[in-house]
Amino acid sequence: MEISSKENTHFFSNNTILPVDRSSFKSESSASKEKQSCCGGIKIFLCALSFVYFAKALSGSYLKSTITQIERRFDIPSSLVGVIDGSFEIGNLLIIILVSYFGAKLHRPRIIGAGCLIMSAGTLLIAMPQFFMGRYQYERFPSTINSTVSISPCLQDKSQTPLSALEKSQAEINAGCEKEAGSSMWIYVLLGNLLRGIGETPIQPLGITYVDDYAVEENAALYIGCVQTVAIIGPIFGFLLGSLCAKLYVDIGFVDLDSVTISPKDVQWVGAWWLGYLIAGVISVLAGIPFWFLPKHLPKPESRKDSSTSSEQSKFIIEESKDQRTSYQQQAKLAEMAKDFLPSLKNLFGNPVYILYLCASIIQFNSLIGMVTYKPKYIEQQYGQTSSKTNFVIGLINIPAVAFGIFSGGLIMKKFRIGVLGAAKLSLGSSFFGYLLLLSLFAMGCENSDVAGLTASYHGTKPMTDYERALFSECNSGCSCSENDWDPVCGENGVTYVSACLAGCQASNGSGKNTVYFNCSCVGTFESSQSSSAVVGPCQKGNECPKMFLYFLVISVITSYTLSVGGTPGYILLLRCIKPHLKSFALGIYTLAIRVLAGIPAPVYFGVAIDTTCLKWGSKRCGGRGACRLYDSSALRYVYLGLTLVLGTVSIFFSVAVLWVLRKRSSPQDETLSANGERGTCGTKSRKDNFVNSDQLIQSTYWPEKETRL
């Protein structure tokens, strides 16, 4: 045992004075007690950390599931929703460097506990606008609300509208508009998401490194795997919660649901988006409580006291002098830590592998974050699915595929004993084949629904260039209609009309969702239609669309799995090429770059690009453009998928550069291992589990916002 200690000291510590093997002076009983204390403490921390990962993953994925609900509720465009989504990353930006660098020297569990409280406050703040703004109002023709008053949709104008609807004075209307314009309640959603970002910051860099510092090295892989397995459950529950809340009307408990005249299939439908945030906020509070009672330090296992780094890490890391290493082992003061900040930063950015991998990750996350943020919207608009079904599919199918891909990546690394070069190849191959699969999605879209005046003319021919002017035709020229309204009806001919008035309907029967319009002049003239009636709500997509949706789901699941396989090897590549004492700092910088250069801008410019494909914008009660009601399906498909693929292709080129640098640095003999595993990449003796040690597996199954990837 003494000889083994000296060997470890010689190879890993390089100190001139050998440390005393204190374990030889301890009694067997005291050593057993320390081991039990260590194991018990780290397991309690693991349980608490797993619950926190579940809580933050649930709230983050739930936000993704409510993107379209928030857009409709606050009547805002996709680009502004992208700003709200990116505010989470801005919160991370504010403190992530301080937390990742200084937090590692302070009381890490309590910092995580404080972060949970802040995260909970932000989550609850997001739901607050529901209780301070008025009830949700959607566009509906009066006859669908009150069956006792018979009003002709076509002849509706000021002279024929009931006088009671015109009794409001202009001053009252103006006052209401000023109040509505000045509220801007979506700002509270933005601020709440900003607080969520601040509170989530310490969990990832401090939590996992705490486990790595105090876990037995042989058990680190199992511990990290348990944390990430529990974390994967969070997004599943988040999207399933989003699916459940999307079925409930936004003002449930505040209004009579029988008076609601729209269904979940309607583009104006808004679910109870706020309810899930209340649930997620309470869970975050509960998750943070245990960390206030955990110690700052745990006793280190005996096997970790004399070890420094793995042999493969030393291949890509230039060893420091004894004096420098000794200074890192000492208890540093705050001023000394601040003084060492710039040299540490320079050290990181002087590593070409780290920089190239960082660039590849930034561009790839631009692609993935933008794609994931608007995936629910894409499915709803492209395939005509409800928000509830969309969230259910993502939570129950896509997220497990991501989890299985992450697990498979780690299993492949262990099974085939893959080193750094192999990890780079596996990561590159995963990205290449994943984006190659995305190409097939271009052929799996649905054609535009026939909407008179927008995607088809009133006579069944191609529409005019000016879509708004095309809303009017000879068949509705005698009607007093507004081109700003969106109250779609489905004609018996299978064509959707923007409103009953624009369909030329002369009479109606029934109320609410059961309203039927008759004598619709535009319905009767469309391709010699024999019927002239219409019902409330848009028509369904074509018969081929459900089949295309199934194909899309299959390819989407395979793509999610393929891209996720490269997540573990990529993180191993990152961690093996940085110095051990810079581990937390490097992960903090990495996460910072992803947040700033991908998490913040990607949802914004993806949203701006998607807004360009809008065919019909809604209008606010007091004027101004609201949320988009109808998108051009073909244009949306090319913009959404095309932008994703272009960014993904650029990231692949950077991944190729990473592989080239690694090949240039390594020699052929370093890439091989002997059968008995005694020859490592540096020719030094390695343990049997060299390729699955804790330094390799820290964060190996996690990357920023992983829970909502694809």
Folded structure, characterized:
Pfam families: Kazal_2, OATP. Residues 45-666 form the Major facilitator superfamily (MFS) profile domain. Residues 670-689 are annotated as: Disordered. It is found in: Cell membrane. The chain has 710 residues and is mostly helical. It has helices spanning 2-13, 28-65, 67-73, 78-102, 108-127, 129-132, 170-183, 186-200, 203-214, 220-247, 273-288, 311-316, 322-329, 334-339, 341-349, 352-373, 375-383, 387-415, 420-439, 467-470, 521-525, 545-565, 567-576, 583-599, 601-611, 633-665, 694-697; strands spanning 489-491, 496-497, 507-509, 516-518, 534-536, 614-619, 625-631. The chain has a five-stranded antiparallel β-sheet, with no helix packed on it. Strands 6-7 form a two-stranded antiparallel sheet. The longest helix is centred in the N-terminal third of the chain and has 38 residues, at 28-65. The model is unreliable at 1-39, 144-149, 156-173, 308-313, 318-332 and 669-710 (pLDDT under 50).
